[in-house]
Design goal:
About 35% of the residues lie in helices and about 15% in strands. The chain has helices at about 35-40, 50-55, 75-85, 100-115, 125-135, 150-160; strands at about 10, 60-70, 90-95, 120-125, 140. Strand 4 (about 120-125), helix 5 (about 125-135) and strand 5 (about 140) form a beta-alpha-beta unit.
């Protein structure tokens, strides 16, 4: 049973819980191979720092996953979370046709979540998402345990892909 009084702890996936560096090579080419990039996601190794923080947060909070991955990746994403023993939680994904920057789509979902409950923290590696969330008054933990490649950063901001 879900306790609707528990605050939310919101976690990004790529670069926060999942090490997507092995698949960034698909974004370095022109044109970018988005199908291959997302198809390779189930092979992402977990990031120990993010996983530990997520497990600790689950002791006091309801965990919510907020990713820029498109909805078509839901089955693989949910399986990846379960296979790595991450806490159960709702997964919010980008609509398949949504190409807005992550800083826009994620803030929209954060605000919607905050209407009903406290958001204890957002954990994300995207500096622009973190900046926007902080400006909106959310507590942010910046996932600095990995470094996203330049192509991925560009894709997050300009192409609204992840």
């Amino acid at each position: 049973m879900i306790d609707k009084t528990r605050p939310f702890a919101v976690f990004d996936l790529d670069g926060t819980l999942a090490d997507s560096s092995h698949r960034q090579r698909f974004l370095d080419r022109k044109p970018r191979d988005w199908d291959a990039f997302f198809t390779a996601a189930p092979a992402d190794p977990p990031l120990a720092e993010g996983v530990a923080l997520c497990a600790a947060a689950a002791e006091e909070c309801e965990v919510v996953y907020l990713t820029g991955r498109p909805e078509r990746c839901r089955r693989d994403t949910v399986a990846w979370l379960a296979e790595r023993g991450l806490p159960a939680g709702t997964v919010h994904m980008r609509r398949n046709d949504d190409r807005r920057p992550a800083r826009v789509t994620k803030l929209e979902i954060l605000r919607r979540l905050a209407r009903g409950r406290e958001i204890r923290m957002l954990v994300d590696d995207d500096e622009l998402v973190c900046d926007a969330a902080e400006r909106a008054g959310f507590r942010v933990v910046r996932a600095r345990w990995t470094e996203a490649g330049a192509a991925l950063k560009d894709a997050q901001e300009r192409e609204g892909r992840t």
